[in-house]
Here is the input.
Amino acid sequence: MALHLGDDAPNFKALTTEGEIDFYEYLGDSWGVLFSHPADFTPVCTTELGRTALLNEEFAKRNVKVLAVSVDSLDKHKQWVSDINETQHCSVDFPIIADEDRKVATLYDMIHPNASATFTVRSLFIIGPDKKLKLYITYPASTGRNFVEVLRVIDSLQLTAKHSVATPADWKHGEDVIVVPAVSTEDAIKKFPKGVKVMKPYLRYTPEP
Ligand code: BEZ
Here is the structure.
């Protein structure tokens, strides 16, 4: 089943390196990042999981719980985690699902048969506290993901969930944001006391609220 933005993130129970989990219980009221990688003991995946572990404080600051998945076994995951910790100078502290029966991969459409009949591609889903899908990206096996970009999108999602703003191209936390078209300039001036810069009637900036 193809998933789309705004859909409910499918719940599941799974065996992980941290024991059996129910996805929704694991997330609780937090935001979530669920990401798949093709296989254990592969170089790009090793750097991706290491990078994610090194960013654990950044994810925690944003109230985000991380969960990785691949179709390898729990034994393999556990052996591989010690390699990741050694080579990436980190301590992997998030669960990795052993999705040997491809239950999670199938629920989240992470196997793209024309890329690989058996392995998951690099899919990544951001899930809101309402358990809805807020973003998904899919990278090929040969390209490691940019986890700073993942944090940047989370910053944007969390900000735009609270305020009537959108974030422009390449926006980073602390930079000006865009007033959404649904808010009139008159209302925007009242709503955003830090000021509204009108470039065009449809293009209005305000400092990050
Ligand atoms: C990797 O993670 O290094 C990788 C996995 C599958 C194909 C190519 C690279």
Remarks:
- The radius of gyration is 19 Å.
